[in-house]
Amino acid sequence: MQVTKIIMFPKIQPDTTIALFLLKTFGEELFLGIRGVEVDFWTKVPEGKDPKQFEQEGVLLLDMGGGRFDHHNKRDAGSKMALSKIVAQELGVVDDPAIEKLLAYAHRDDVEGKGTISKDPLDRAFGLSGLIMSMNRDYPDNPKKVLQAVWPLIESHYHEEKRRNHELPIEYKKLGDDKKTKEMSVRQGSKKLKVVLLESDNVAMPGFLRANKEVQADVVVQKMSSGHVNVVTKQWKKVDLKNLVIVLRVDEMRRKGVDLKKINWDMIGRPGFLDEAPQWYYDTAATTIQNGGVCPQNIEPTSIPWEEFPNLMEIGLDPEKFEQTISKSS
After folding, report:
1. What is the predicted pLDDT for the residue at 66?
2. What is the pTM for the complete model shown?
3. Is 219 within 8 Å of 239 (Cβ atoms)?
């Protein structure tokens, strides 16, 4: 079908917006020209034409007119279907994990009528459903403005899910094949921590590794091509990094020739920067140890060789090994 126009209701809704996004993103093969076609807004369908006649003229109706993309007369296992799911099924992408959350959100908002589930007033006010509702009230005669404001949010979410579900798993596998990753387990008290060390400049990789169900990293140690190394954790796991930052700072100072006898040992594990080892910033709020973070700027890369980090992770994260190491060096 060659599409020349898309028609939808002027009241912008999450489900309709997501359905439109799916059509423009995946629909070019079935609906020629849909990617660049303009959207028009009607409050009702003119009498005298059925949906097939509109389609013969290149007009695609969304959620109106009783056609293929009107969810008001579609049901799935006895319950009403969201328009976005109907579209996803038509396009053959309903099982794509990159749109799983979009479909779930659209169903919850439209079919279940819940929008933002949280009862917190800030969550409800600044949740997407609430913001769209506010914009509809502000711009009742300009639905295009509302749609243009919401679109980049939907698009960016999809791009992130695409990275996490398609691109990053492939990239991580390639890093493994190239011997640029190492997975290890470290005991921290009663916790068993999964630690992943990798060499990559992709700043999205730590988030992926912590969220990915197959990897399930609790601690990610990432070395950039610049030589900077950052340690991030899964926050709900409440990983204790105090011993690790001591280990890293002491090793850094030793390699820089700092006289460790003149160091105030009570200050080595403090949060923030340490003047004697400015390479390592300890952020207790985010539970990270940053050697410059994603934008190192004037922070020098660590002088600790990359091959030393697996051993340092074990010493710094395992309290027993930390105590043993301290006892031997004292």
Report:
1. 86
2. 0.80
3. yes
